[in-house]
Each structure stands twice: as C-alpha cells, then as structure tokens.
Design a protein that fits this description.
359 residues, Nucleotidyltransferase, domain 5, Dna Ligase, domain 1, 3 domains, 6-stranded mixed sheet, 16 strands, PilM, Pilus assembly protein PilM
Length: 359
C-alpha cells in the first residue's frame, strides 16, 4: 500500500545559513535531490571592513545590513527564512540532569528555575532556550538537558540585521555548534564512519583561531587563540607599503610581488603551524589524551599554500583543509571553481543551512 504522506511529502521550507564574522558575511542554501542527497543550491560571500563587527558585536549596523542585502542579491536566492549564529563567547551553555517523563511546560518551569543558578544576569535580560539531549548516562530514568542563554541585545542585533535585509530569522544557533554539525558529516566519511576518531578542528578566522577537539560528536576540548589571517595582511602592508584595503584585495587575487612567497608567506605559514602545534600541546597537557587522529582546517586562511604540510611537519598528525560541500551535488546556481577556492570559509554557514533538515 502506498502512503499518501510519502507520495506528497515535501522538503522542509528553504532555509539560508548566514554566517556573519568579523571579516565577511557568508550565505549557503542547501536542498536535497530525489534520492535524498544534499545539494548545494547557492553560496555567496561579501567582505566586511575591519571594525564593523568586533568581538562578535555589531559596531556598524547599517553597513553590515547593507552587506547582508548584497550577499542575498549576489546569491540569487528567493528564500526568506534564515538561520544565524552567535559567537560562543556571547552564549552561556550548561548541561543539566532533570527527571524524565516531564511535559514540555513542566520542563520549561524546571529549566527556568535551574537557569537562575548558572546565568549571571536577570532572566528578563536574556533569551533562553533548551533541548533534551537524551537519557542521562549517570542516573537511570533522568534526562540530560542543554540550556543556552544569551543577552537579548545580542540576539536582537542578529535578528535586526536579517530583517533589515528582508529576511525572516527562524533559528539562532551558536557558531561552534554549526561548524561542528557541518564537520560531523565529513567525519562520518572517515574509516569506520569516524567512530572513536579524535579530530582537532581549527577554524582560522581573520583575528581569532578557534580549536575544537571532537570525538563521537562530543567536544573533548576547546580553545580560542588570538592569531588569524589578518596578520598576513598586516605583514603585506608593512613589507610593500600598500593600504590595508589594497593588501586584502591583492592577497585574495594572488596579485603580489615576486618575493612575496619567500619573504612573507612562507614565514607566516610557518608561524601559523607553530601556533597550531602549541594549541595541541595545551590540549595534551590538560587532558588524558596524547594524540589526535586528524587535524582539519577551516576558515579563510586554511587554504594557504603549504599550510597543511607545515602543520603535519610540526605535529606529525595528518592534516587536511575542509570542504564542507564535499560529496554534495552542486546546483546550477553555483560557480564551482570559485566555490572550491573559498569552500573552507563556508563551514559555519553550511552547518547553519543543514538545520533545514534537522528541525
């Protein structure tokens, strides 16, 4: 017998993943084909000037809103629903254990009373959400609940940017959760479906590099370090006397003097590999672990020539640059060569777009 539900079943409503970082706005839209495989329908990126977003705070609202409008137009999407994310520093998360079998309203009351202990602000000042993770490993019959809270103005800033660009914000996530979701799909392609595999994920941003060590969807360790791709631009400015804007443009286009590779790029890549090695040493000295199985790099500077080799040399662990769209069908609305050049920058926006299929 044919179920009418399956005959007329439709994809969840289109959803854009929009990642607003300190250096750019990145947009991803995903769909599924008839076989259920993920399809990259659209992706687009728009640079932001330094200081428009600082430490996750929106300093120049109108300018960033305009950049969001441009990226939506550039992508050609008609979708309006959008998933956005806040930096982990703007969100307090806590796992708590509650009795199983409670109704949603009962859970809500219980979560609010528990949240008071962990949140250093009045509950009137925060946006609070929670989800049941699953049965508690430590006490039978109880459930593990994840609480997430952020100050209302942080959430409203992100919502406001989306609304100013004619979009409807339906999900506010945490950047590190979104990047982990996109990485999890790639870890499943590793031998033995990535089971018990320890992966050190480094997201190299403009000013900060975030590290998460993941095993079986669990974060064993995380840490932020103050180094990133913007330091390379500063070196280019110092070496050749370009303006910061010129340096950024020439870095992106590969339009630099002949001595750039030996004089600027190679030493920078070397120091970045050392920073990654140092971050791993912090992980080893503060946990029972003394190795990782893979190092994965994402972010705008992850694809710098020679970086993966330098990291492997410094750490002796296999290192690769992530392409979050690996194994997806590529839709007609995507310029494939450009996408492949920039793919590692789209990790968080890809994870946000994947929320379409998890609601």
């Amino acid at each position: 017998m044919i179920s009418l539900g399956s005959l007329f079943s439709r994809q969840p409503a289109p959803l854009l993943g929009l990642d607003i970082s300190s250096s750019s706005v990145k947009l991803v839209e995903l769909g599924r084909d008839k076989e259920g495989n993920l399809v990259l329908e659209r992706c687009a990126m728009e640079p932001l000037e330094r200081g428009w977003i600082s430490d996750g705070n929106v300093e120049k609202f109108d300018e960033v809103a305009e950049a969001v409008r441009r990226v939506v137009k550039k992508s050609g999407t008609r979708a309006k629903n959008v998933a956005l994310a806040l930096p982990p520093s703007a969100v307090i998360t806590k796992k708590i254990v509650l009795p199983g079998g409670m109704s949603e309203p009962e859970l809500e009351i219980q979560v609010e009373s528990e949240a008071n202990q962990y949140i250093p602000f009045s509950l009137d000042e925060v946006s609070l959400d929670f989800c049941v993770v699953g049965p508690s490993a430590s006490s039978a019959g109880d459930v593990e609940v994840l609480i997430a809270a952020s100050r209302k103005e942080k959430v409203q800033d992100r919502q406001g940017l989306a609304e100013a660009a004619g979009l409807k914000p339906v999900i506010i996530d945490v950047e590190s959760y979104a990047s982990r979701l996109a990485t999890g799909r790639l870890i499943e392609n590793l031998p033995n479906k990535g089971l018990d595999t320890i992966v050190a994920l480094f997201e190299v941003g403009a000013f900060t590099t975030s590290m998460q060590v993941i095993r079986n969807d669990e974060v064993l360790y995380d840490r932020d370090q103050a180094f990133g791709g913007a330091q390379l631009s500063q070196l280019i400015v110092r070496q050749y006397g370009f303006s910061p804007e010129e340096a950024e443009a020439k870095k992106r286009n590969g339009d630099l003097p002949d001595d750039y590779i030996d004089g600027v790029l190679t030493p920078f890549v070397e120091s970045m590999a050392q920073e990654i090695g140092r971050a791993l040493q912090f992980f080893f000295t503060s946990t029972p672990h003394n190795r990782v199985d893979y190092i994965m790099l994402a972010g705008g500077s992850a694809a710098l020539p020679g970086l993966t080799e330098a990291v492997t040399q410094h750490t002796s662990f296999a290192c690769s640059v992530l392409n979050p769209f690996d194994g997806m069908e590529i839709g007609d609305g995507v310029r494939e060569r450009k996408m492949l050049r920039e793919a590692s920058s789209y990790l968080t926006s890809c994870g946000l777009a994947m929320r379409r299929f998890l609601q």
